[in-house]
Write a structure and sequence with these properties.
heterotrimer; A mainly alpha; B alpha+beta; C alpha+beta; A: mainly alpha; 3 helical TM bundles of succinate and fumarate reductases; 8 helices; 79% helix; elongated; B: alpha+beta; Ubiquitin-like (UB roll); Fumarate Reductase Iron-sulfur Protein, Chain B, domain 2; 2 domains; 5-stranded mixed beta sheet; 11% strand
Chain lengths: 220, 248, 637
């Protein structure tokens, strides 16, 4: 079969849903940050070490990298195709009234998220993987301190909060849109997809948003 | 009432166009939007100028030939209404009205507000039919179809092919148009046999015509004169994915 | 010239079978060598083009719209009749035949009408096979309902969009043939001349409405399925582009026109609200099942309809036709409305409407029930008029709707020009002087799917031997010059008035003088007026723009033809000195205003022959022979 936009969309939804799944794992793991600081340090560092050494997690990590890259590349391809399909622009354009703003601005939201990811990866993932971090009492790399230090800066927390709000809207439309692309068409289940999408997004985003704030407030 | 009209004028697809201002007096609220343009054209003829070309035919909202962007929205300010069914009582004295053609690379402008939607015909040609020849069809009641399935098929089949979905879509996608036909035929037992080939061919043709992808903003459903549901797009995706997996 | 309808001999019920059994055939290998041009892509045109292409002929399909799916068949709401007898309520081919003959006031051909009824059942099968979503019962069987003028349930429907669904079926069949390379469609093309070589139709001259190119197309047969000419009245239920040009130009090349003045006025349309109105939208007749029609008893009553008390309302249909009441046939209801409006009892801003009142039905059945039945129509009414019809009466008025008349055709649907066929509303054949509801979709489909696919090959069989005419033939050159000269004349026009001005003037004149009722005096006056208007058109027309995309230029051509056709309508009405069906001559009525038919002198089909510009047309008569039904007086009292 010929490749077409619908297939790109399928990749978008596949990679997107995988990233959604990843966020759940990520959130669950990071919940350890809410423990009392000493226990949190121990648990968190142990957990990070556990992940780093696990072959399954390794595989998932590569899928994750591929998903982020794939999701971005296909988004770019589709955006280019879209602007070709648009042709001449409208002189006076009020089309926005017939849809919600975040559904029309997935690209913009995605770009914010992507920029955020660069910071996020550089500060934690890169540090953990490619630098020699001090070890904690149990002999695990002390990622917790890095996190703690980062979230003690207000501007850093704000960057996170803004990025997470962007991610929230991206998820809100993305989760539902992915289900549509995969072909969930029955009105009965479509309703559930919407509900699940809302619940999922709320839990994930509030969970992640709470972490930097919690750490920041603890440090005051 | 007195109106200020800003209308897109363009000689031909190959030439650049621009918005041109017109003042129009004596517009009555009972006029339909197209009758208002008739009136403008009548005054243009009186002045010896070329009239504003626009597409229209039945003027009762069913042929799908009319369609323009009015104040930045497909078919104007009312949801689910064709341009011909829009009346001037939706506007008030002194209003400025912007009028542009439906725009998409796949809908080249012919002149002024007239566009070429033949891409839609080619999408149908790619598979939007049941291969039943005339002459000796089986007895109609030999194919039983439940009331609900028929009504659902009708909901999809009601599409008038006006192109508002494409015009209002930020991606210029024809997904609503194409999926309405795919659902209509995929729901009926007569149409099921060809469902896999149909969806693949029609989706490919949609791509070849240069329409964009669907990002599920659902704007098309709001502007669609027949309120065709966006769930048909999901149905099209379902049929396509099924074909992707199952088709030999 | 003797008109021979070529009706096969034998019993009425056997005629069509006999014809099919003896029709000439063309070897499958030879079919692609034979070209057929089909003008129009409505139900008749699209179905005929698709059917012929399926058989293997090379078909060219033309329409002026931007897609074949937009022809005005799309707008038919109510349904399509078929003698399936699914309801087991006594329906049969004969009964349907009789209803149609009677509905047409005994002015149609028995054999044609019988064939229409015979093929009706198969049409439903065909449409279902194509995927037309007709209404179904919960068990999955097809549903149907009853419609005006009959006592059985034989109308199949797809909500209020039956025409659209049938047309999409035919359109999709056509698109399928196009994808197989057997049909070439020419959208945005308008036929401007018929090319006749040695007395036979051999092609057309068409104008590409996008480039202005004048094109020659040659073929072995030409099919005109261009619909009706009700738009001659300007204000009508028809689409803006509907026109008579193809049939009129064929008429001027020798095809006779029949029953030209038989035009049906639909009683439930939205009234004219202002001078600039372009269209009278039809509201489904089904509204009359629950709505009561009335006008104020007092003439020139200035009160709002909803303020007029019950005892001051005149339910004139219930008063005059107690048996059928608000469900009286279209021609009778329309005429009764006009009579009241003319008497000064009309309502609305222009005093040109009557009330269609649902208050009683809402009181008896509840608003919800009425909403369930008609909500789409009430919404449409509010969209167009801005009035909520649950709160106050709808205003309706009769509007020009369907032309029973058209090109004269024989039993094979061939006109007086060999090789030129006319299908659907473009011909005159099946409806007589009045058409029954839900028979127009039927006739268009039957002509295209089931009749033409036998009769056209029967003609084409002999064409194989004939010498192939190409577009280099002098007849094409000549026809092209005529077309070009006319277009040039329009483009160089020096007047000040638009084509629409003339169209509106003609329409108003015809509504007044050759509309719902006519008289010798009004018709004679109309003929003089039209002649004058035609002169004025020559001098005062102004066409702006160039010879490429130019809707004004298109309109000018159509109006020219209307200005001639309108005159012939008046002649046709003038010479028919009786009242029958939609044709109501004021001189021929009973004391209480009912139509008086004259079977002694007028039991014939008029067939007019063009005698050149300025000359009066010659009237030929095809006598109507009724062997199977007895001519009776239509009474709905």
């Amino acid at each position: 079969m010929k490749t077409n936009s619908l297939q790109y969309k399928l990749w978008m939804s596949g990679t997107g849903l995988f990233l959604c799944f990843f966020l759940v794992i990520h959130l669950l793991g990071n919940l350890q940050l809410f423990l009392p600081p000493d226990r949190a340090r121990e648990q968190f560092n142990w957990y990070s070490h556990l992940l780093a050494g696990n072959i399954i997690i390794e595989i998932i990590a590569y899928v994750l990298y591929a998903s982020i890259i794939g999701h971005t590349v296909y988004a770019i391809i589709l955006t280019v195709k879209k602007s070709k399909a648009n042709g001449t622009k409208y002189v006076y354009d009020k089309r926005g009234v017939s849809s919600v703003w975040y559904s029309r601005n997935m690209g913009l939201l995605g770009t914010i998220i992507f920029l955020f990811l660069i910071i996020h990866f550089k500060d934690f993932w890169y540090q953990y993987k490619f630098t020699n971090l001090p070890l904690d009492a149990k002999g695990n790399k002390d990622l917790y301190t890095i996190v703690e230090k980062a979230y003690q800066q207000l501007w850093y927390v704000l960057v996170y909060e803004v990025a997470l709000i962007a991610l929230g809207f991206h998820l809100l439309h993305g989760f539902f849109s992915a289900a549509r692309t995969l072909g969930v068409f029955h009105p009965k289940y479509v309703r559930w997809v919407k509900v699940v999408g809302w619940v999922y997004t709320t839990v994930i985003i509030l969970g992640f948003m709470a972490m930097p704030v919690y750490v920041y407030l603890n440090s005051l | 009432m007195r109106l200020k009209l800003k209308i897109w004028r363009q000689e031909a697809a190959t030439q650049p166009g621009a918005m041109v201002d017109y003042m129009l007096d004596d517009v009555s609220e009972h006029m339909s939007f197209l009758e208002m343009i008739d009136l403008l054209n009548e005054t243009l003829v009186g002045k010896g100028e070329r009239v504003v070309e626009f597409d229209h035919d039945c003027r009762e909202g069913i042929c799908g030939q009319c369609g323009m962007m009015i104040n930045g929205r497909a078919h104007g300010p009312l949801p689910n209404t064709t341009t011909c069914q829009l009346h001037m009582r939706s506007f008030k004295d002194g209003d400025t009205i912007y009028i542009e053609p439906f725009r998409a690379a796949a809908f080249p402008i012919v002149r002024d507000l007239k566009i070429d939607r033949s891409g839609f015909d080619r999408v149908i040609q790619a598979g939007g039919f049941i291969s039943a020849s005339t002459g000796q069809p089986p007895e109609a009641n030999s194919i039983l179809i439940s009331h609900d399935v028929t009504e659902a098929a009708f909901d999809a089949a009601a599409c008038i092919g006006c192109g508002a979905c494409v015009a209002t879509c930020k991606n210029s996608s024809a997904a609503l148009f194409t999926s309405a036909k795919i659902t209509h035929l995929a729901l009926l037992p007569q149409g099921k046999l060809e469902a896999a080939d149909r969806v693949v061919n029609m989706v490919d043709q949609m791509e070849a015509e240069g329409f964009g992808h669907c990002s599920n903003t659902e704007a098309c459903e709001v502007e669609c004169p027949q309120s065709i549901s966006v769930l048909h797009i999901a149905r099209m995706n379902f049929e396509y994915n099924k074909a992707l997996v199952m088709k030999p | 010239m003797m008109l021979d309808a070529k009706i096969p001999a034998g019993d009425l019920a056997d005629k069509w079978d006999k014809y099919k059994e003896h029709a000439k055939l063309v070897n499958p290998a030879n079919r692609k060598k034979l070209d057929v041009i089909v003008v129009g892509t409505g139900l008749a045109g699209a179905s005929c083009a698709a059917s012929l292409a399926e058989q293997g002929y090379s078909v060219k399909s033309f329409c002026f719209q931007d897609s074949s799916r937009r022809a005005h068949s799309v707008a038919a709401q109510g349904g399509v009749n078929a003698a399936k007898n699914y309801k087991n309520d006594g329906d049969s081919v004969y009964r349907m035949f009789y209803d149609t003959i009677k509905g047409g006031d005994f002015r149609s051909r028995e054999a044609n009408v019988y064939r229409l009824a015979q093929c009706s059942a198969q049409l439903i099968d065909q449409a279902v096979a194509q995927g037309v979503p007709f209404a179904r019962e919960y068990g999955g069987y097809l549903n149907n309902r009853s419609f005006g003028g009959v006592q059985v349930s034989r109308t199949f429907y797809a909500r209020g969009q039956t025409g659209q669904q049938l047309l999409l079926g035919a359109y999709q069949a056509l698109m399928r043939q196009e994808s197989l390379g057997k049909v070439k469609t020419y959208t945005r093309h308008e036929m401007l001349e018929l090319v006749v070589v040695d007395g036979k139709a051999k092609g057309i001259i068409a104008r590409d409405l996008l480039t202005g190119q004048i094109e020659r197309h040659a073929a072995n047969a030409v099919v005109l399925a261009t619909g009706g000419y009700g738009k001659v009245y300007y204000l009508s239920t028809l689409a803006m582009g509907c026109n008579s040009s193809a049939i009129w130009r064929a008429h001027k090349k020798g095809a006779f026109m029949s029953g030209v003045s038989w035009i049906q006025f639909h009683p439930t349309c939205l009234p004219q609200l202002g001078e600039h109105q372009s269209k009278l939208t039809l509201m489904s007749e089904s509204l009359r099942n629950d709505g009561r029609i009335w006008v104020p008893k007092k003439a020139s009553d200035e009160r709002e309809p909803k303020d007029i008390p019950e005892e001051e309302r005149d339910y004139y249909l219930e008063r005059k036709y107690p048996a059928f009441g608000n469900l009286s046939p279209r021609d009778i209801s329309s005429r009764a409305a006009k009579e009241r409006i003319d008497a000064g009892c009309g309502v609305g801003a222009m005093k040109n409407a009557v009330c269609l009142d649902f208050s009683k039905a809402i009181k008896e059945q509840g608003k919800e029930k009425i909403k369930e039945k008609y909500s789409n129509l009430f919404t449409m009414y509010e969209k167009i008029n801005g009035i909520n019809a649950y709160e106050q009466p709808m205003l309706i008025s009769p509007a020009a709707h369907f032309t029973m008349g058209g090109l004269w055709v024989d039993y094979q649907l061939m006109t007086t020009i060999p090789g030129l066929f006319a299908l659907g509303e473009a011909n005159f054949a099946d409806h007589g002087a009045n058409r029954l509801g839900a028979n127009s979709l039927l006739q268009a489909c039957v002509d295209g799917y089931f009749v033409a696919p036998y009769t056209i090959p029967n003609y084409l069989a002999d064409e194989l031997k004939a010498e192939k005419v190409t577009t280099d033939h002098p007849a094409f050159e000549e026809a092209e010059q005529v077309v070009k000269a006319q277009l040039d004349r329009f483009l160089q026009s020096k007047g000040t008035l638009s084509a629409d001005y003339f169209h509106k003037t003609l329409g108003k004149l015809l509504y007044d003088k050759c509309g719902l009722s006519r008289s010798k005096e009004s018709l004679t006056q109309a003929i003089t007026d039209i002649k004058q208007l035609r002169e004025s058109f020559k001098n005062d027309l102004k066409i702006t723009g160039d010879g490429t995309v130019n809707s004004e230029l298109e309109k000018a051509g159509r109006v020219t033809d209307y200005l001639e056709l309108g005159e012939l309508m008046c002649y046709d009405a003038l010479t028919r000195e009786e009242s029958c069906g939609a044709h109501f001559r004021e001189e021929y009525q009973t004391p209480d205003g009912e139509a008086v038919r004259n079977d002694q002198d007028f039991c014939f089909v008029s067939a007019w022959e063009w005698k050149g510009s300025g000359a009066e047309e010659e009237l030929h008569k095809e006598p109507l022979v009724f062997e199977n039904v007895e001519l009776a007086v239509r009474s709905y009292k």
